[in-house]
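Records of this kind hold a single protein each, on a pair of labelled lines. Below, a sample record shows both lines together.
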Amino acid sequence: MKSGETNRCQILDDIGRRIREARVLAGLTQEELSGGDITRNMLSRIENGAALPSLPTLCALADRLGIPAGAFLGDLEEYNSYKLKVELQALLVKKKYQQMIERCKSSGQKLDDELRGLLYEAYVKNALDKYLSGRLGEAQIMLDEAERCSPNDSPDPAQASGKAVLLRMLLDKAACISGVSDGSESHQKQDNLMLLRRMIFGHSSLAIYVYARELLDGVSGKAYSVPDENAGFYRLRLEPLISELPDGFFRSHIEAKLDMVNADYLGAKARLVPYCEEDVKLAPTFAFDLYTDLEFCCKCCGDFENAYKYSNLKLAVLRKIK
């Protein structure tokens, strides 16, 4: 076989193989991809390297697959970028965030904005999973990596995803719990709070919960049956937001904190005790807050036996937080 013929056969094979791979990745049958432009038999011949598609046919197939036509003709980087994108999207649906990260690292490819966006999402969701399992150090590392690969190249919280901002705030607070905080304020705290105030109108349960915790942090009745002087202000500010929350831990915890601000420690205790049941699964840092507030309420009510119990439960949770 002459050199020219060999090259032509190789081109046919490459085009056919790429079309076939792209079709399989897209989850389409030959009949679905061929549409009304060509017959299924003709598509089969193209995929097997037995026929060369015309330019209009190639463009039609590329459009139906959602990739540039040039990816079939010779732009290998563009084609590999497409394949990686489809792989990452499939892993994202399956919540395989660590595999997404490893796949990006092993690809050796330069990531465009869309690929970086998928990697950013993988890091943030991986960080959230680790936070919810109490692995705070690993969550912090994942979130730092997310900010480094942010598609817009900016870790500015006003540009970052809402979930990343909320997680950063939770980690800042959890760092104080686990004793790894240096006691300083986060340099992004004010920017974060500004974004959080905008986000609460999107009715995000986590956003409302974090906002309420920031507002009520360290506030309680001055003494048993003596409310904080700003109790009315806090309730006025938070009740419209609480009404947006479904029943569950976030809503009960905020309502309990408002009871504590109003020095109603028995009421707060009654709201929180059901979440100590064994079948209730809370993230370790949420459980730590729950036991902390229950310990405080029991002390204020003179129930020192249960205060001791919740103190021990709190310490047990603390040992699980890394």
Observations:
- The chain has a mean pLDDT of 78.
